[in-house]
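seq as requested:
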Amino acid sequence: MKSFLRRITKGKESQSAPVAKGNRVLSEKEIAVQQEQLQEQRAQAAARQRAILSAQKQGPRNHPKTHSDAQPRVEKPSFWKRFSSKRKKPDPQVRAAKQKKNAIGPVIRDLLSGEFLTKEGVTRHIPYLLFISALFVVYIAMGYQFERIEREKMKKKERIEELSAEFKTLQADFESRLQQSSVERNIADLGLIQPVEPPYLLEQIVPAQP
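struct tokens:
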């Protein structure tokens, strides 16, 4: 490739001088045009040569880049790492004091042993605790009383329903006995019959006085 380029450049240099075509001598204008064309060809050849050299330096396109050629990858810290770095670490003494304060073991121990009743705060509020206990007792007693009243109310309601049904039954029986057919059937056993002829008025004859 380089030898080919050298031949082209040598041939163009030899043509740079005015050459006679046949018996005619080139004018200055034609010589200037040829020189411009020669310069353009030289520039194109130089550009091709630079492109070839750059391609040789870069290597083949399909060749993968090695780890040495690649830039080292910088890992960004995660959100949790940034948050933990900004977070203020608590003092171990303060942390131990909080754990001791929030512990459930001492509270359970006091409840089982009954020591919480001997504390000053509890003894000071004994009257109030007695008042609350009395309210609870009254509340429970009122609940039982309401239940007893409700049971009695239900019993009386059931009794009223039974009496109402009995009254309706007796009333229907009495109305059936008041019917004319029932009356005739009942007086037939006594030997009484219903008169067929209409009643008439008996007149009393008073004797004349002498």
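The CA atoms of residues 9 and 41 lie 9 Å apart.
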